[in-house]
Each structure stands twice: as structure tokens, then as C-alpha cells.
Amino acid sequence: MGGAFVTGPPQPCEEIRRFLQNTGISPDPWSADVAVVRADARAKVLAVTGEPASVASVESVDADGVPGRLYRSTGAERGVLVWAHGGGWIHGDLDTADGVARALANRAACAVLSVDYRLAPEHPFPAGFDDLWAAAGWARREFERVVVGGDSSGGNLAAAVALKARDESVELAGQLLIYPAVDSTEDTDYKVAFRTRYESFAGRTGFGANSYQRLQHIWAAYVSDPAARRTPYASPLHAESLNGVAPATIITAEHDFLRGEAQDYARRLKAAGVPVELIEYGGQIHGFFEMFTVTPDAHHAVNTAGDAVRRALHSTQPSEPPKEFSCDR
User: Fold this and answer.
1) Which tens digit of pLDDT belongs to each residue from 160-210?
2) Using one digit for the tens of pLDDT, what is the confidence trace for 25-83?
3) I need a labelling partner for 262 at 20 to 30 A (CA). Which of 19, 178, 241, 270 fits?
């Protein structure tokens, strides 16, 4: 499963190589206190997002019992993107999502509802999923059209909400999935190959094995029951059918442990007749989407994502054909 690796040692973009060389190693979540993990992740994200873009307004909202932050780019939007931040279901918050939410609101000319969903391990599955579903329901009443989206674990929640919307006959205009975690299976060909090929990456020994172990840990923290991990709302790739789900835009990074499952999900969506746009960024790593001060690809990807959301909210036309980008554009 998943796309084939290119030959030769994996090489990141030059700006990503410099970033990795100058950034400290994060604490291992399986051995460090969760508060330490959260504080470290928060500091690292806020260090790369830069100055927040101006928007028309930002307000705290109660989305059917779920706290959120509503961004408006013009003040009169009829469509909204319901956004779930990444963080392996165990860290991340409204502040770490702030830069991306502002940029997407401006580019898509829509409102963005950033959702402060409950985190594991204190609140395991389905708490975060239930929160995003509730927030999407609130958004459906407040706005004419709704897109759900998120990055990494947030992409998982968005894809799962899109599945439930299909199951409950609730219309969504689209789904935006940024390097989503959609498959809890540990031993896919792609993941096994990643561990070996990425034994060393950008000077970091054990990069592949560490990525593998991190993903094992966060899945266990989010869904403790291995059998439940393969249910569709936990692992969307395990849905029996994807027929009828909302059109999707999926963005991936070349050097990402989750790339294979995102590609598999795009293939399954296409086979089910769902309009899907798969955009792959060469030379990039997991997390690049929010790295506005690190790589120009972050700006390009957010603009591309915003354009996709705008099309979904304001047009009935199908998505553009899939494109492939690389860091040497």
C-alpha cells in the first residue's frame, strides 16, 4: 500500500534541512509527561508560524458545547471551514492553529471555525471526533455551506466527520485533509519501508524508527482498544465504502510517515467516484503546512488549500486535476 519511494537517499528541501539541524529533538511522548510534550510542541509551532495575519474579526464561540474560535475575513461570509488542528490527538490548541486559521480565512474568503476539541489521553476516542461533529453541526446552522478540514490528526477527525456526514445524510461542501492520519495499521508496506529508508534523515539517526514509535504511541493514546482502531470513524481508510462522501483536497509531504495512507485514501476516493485532488510537496516534511517562517512551500500550500476551500464553498465545479509540486519550483 502507498506510493513507491524514489531511489537514492531521501533529501529534504534546503530550508527544511537547515530547520532540522537547528531545531532540538522533541521529547518522546511515550516517556515524557504529557504536559511537557504539549508545552514543547506548542513552543515549536508558535516559533515557526510568524506574525498573525489580520482578519476582519476573531471571536470566541460555543459551538454546541464545544469551544472554538471564529475567524471572519470580510464579516459577511456565507460559508465556513470547520478546522481541526493537528497534534497527534494529544497536543495542539487554538493558539497553535491561529496562524493557519487566519491564512485560510483570508485566502478562501470564508469564515473559519477553529475547534478546541478534547485531547487524549484524558479524553480518548470518540471524544475529539464527537466534538468536531458537534461543531460541524453548529456550523451547518450558522452558515449556508460547510467544509471540514484539518492537519495530521485533525485531518483524521475531518475525514471521519465527512464519513459520518455521508452516513447521516448531512451535506458538506468538501473536506480538506492535510497529511491526514487515516489508517491505524502499523505494518503496511509503506510504513515498514519508511522505517528502513529513513534510518537516517537530514542528520537525524533513527528518524524512521522514531516516527514509527511515535505513531504507535499516539494511536494507542487516542484509541486504546486495537479493534476499535480499525473502525471507520477512528481509521477512515477502513470504511467499507467511500461512496457519497464530500469532495476532497488532500495535501501530502514527500518525507512523511503518513504519506502512503493519504495516497491510498485518495485512490479509494477516486475509485468511489468522489472528486479528489491530491497535491504532493516534494522535499517537505510532516508539519510544513504551518511553517510560514521556514519554507515558502508553507505559504504555497496554504494558498492552494484556501483556493480549494473557496471553490468548494462558492462553486459547483469539480476540483482541478491532481498536481504535483516540488520544493524547487
Assistant:
1) 999 999 999 999 999 999 999 999 999 999 999 999 999 999 989 999 999
2) 999 999 999 999 999 999 999 999 999 999 999 999 999 999 999 999 988 899 999 99
3) 19
> CB 86: neighbour CB atoms within 10 A?
28
Bridge partners (DSSP) of residue 177 are 150, 250
What is the CA 113 to chain-centroid distance, rounded?
15
- CB under 8 Å, gap of 24 or more: what pairs does 196-205 form? 197/5, 197/10, 198/10, 198/255, 201/10, 201/12, 201/20, 201/255, 202/12, 202/16, 202/17, 202/20, 202/21, 203/20, 203/21, 204/20, 204/25
Catalytically active residues, by annotation: 152, 256, 286
**In the CATH hierarchy, which fold is given to the domain comprising 14-325?**
Rossmann fold (3.40.50)
Task: Please tell me the pTM assigned to this model.
Answer: 0.94
Instruction: Name residue, grid cell 501530502.
Output: 252
Task: Give the end-to-end CA distance of the chain in Å, rounded to a whole number.
Answer: 28
